[in-house]
Amino acid sequence: MKNPWTTISKKEVYDNPWIKVEEHQVITPTQKKGIYGKVIFKNLAIGIIPLDENGFTWLVGQYRYTVDEYAWEIPMGGGPADQTALESAKRELKEETGLQAKEWTELLKIHTSNSVTDEVGYVYLAKDLTQGETEFDDTEDLKIWHLPFKEAYQMVLDGQITDAISMAAILKTAVLLKK
Questions:
Q1: Of all residues in the chain, what percent are helix, strand and coil, respectively (each to 5)?
Q2: What is the C-alpha separation between 89 and 39, in angstroms, rounded?
Q3: CA-to-CA distance for 151 and 25, rounded, in angstroms?
Q4: Is 144 exposed, middle or buried (0-12, 13-18, 19+ CB in 10 A)?
Q5: How far apart are alpha carbons 122 and 106 in whole angstroms?
Q6: What tens digit of pLDDT does each residue of 45-91 get?
Q7: What angle do CA 33, 114, 155 make, to 5 degrees?
Q8: Which residues face 60 on adjacent strands?
Q9: Exposed/middle/buried for residue 113 (C-beta within 10 Å: 0-12, 13-18, 19+)
Q10: pLDDT digits over 136-168, tens only?
Q11: Which residues contact 106 (CB under 8 A, 6 or more apart)?
């Protein structure tokens, strides 16, 4: 489909090592002048559903500054542009849980909030797991929870897991496990 938007101009209004914010002057699809803010992410979003032979998974708990709440999520993080999404997923799983997997399957590609950001996320299912030591980032104070996958699924249904990537990944995994 042809893009119905016209960009008149754009200017950078903020930049840091993780994101850039631009302000765009546009002509909308209804031919009116308008303004659009765009958040450009400098990394891929990476998520992992580790699943063991007994149907258990791992969640990571941490306090999320931006929403001012404690959150349980799947292991996840940023994937640098010079790495493949899978390489980043392997690194993130090891960092946050200490796990390494022999079997990797891409579960989904997700646009986290496509009305304001270009962020793209990739989530993998990791199986045939081996436990090792975690390697947390300097900013991370994480709790690790090993629980039945069914409980993580129920947490999504009950509204206890609200992170979009975690929700999408857990729901898709639940569908795949029922097949």
A1: 20, 50, 30
A2: 23
A3: 46
A4: middle
A5: 7
A6: 999 999 999 999 999 999 999 999 999 999 999 999 899 999 999 99
A7: 145
A8: 73, 144
A9: exposed
A10: 877 778 999 999 999 999 999 999 999 999 999
A11: 85, 86, 122, 123, 124, 125
Place of tokens 């950001």: 117
Tokens 């999408």 -> residue: 168
What are the tokens at 151?
């409980």
Please tell me the distance from the alpha carbon of residue 79 to that of residue 60, in angstroms, as a whole number: 18
Q: Which pTM does this prediction carry?
A: 0.92
Q: Per the structure block, which two tokens stand in for 102?
A: 């022999």
Count, residues in the chain:
179
Q: 25 by DSSP, 3-state: which?
A: strand
Name the token pair of 161: 């897991």
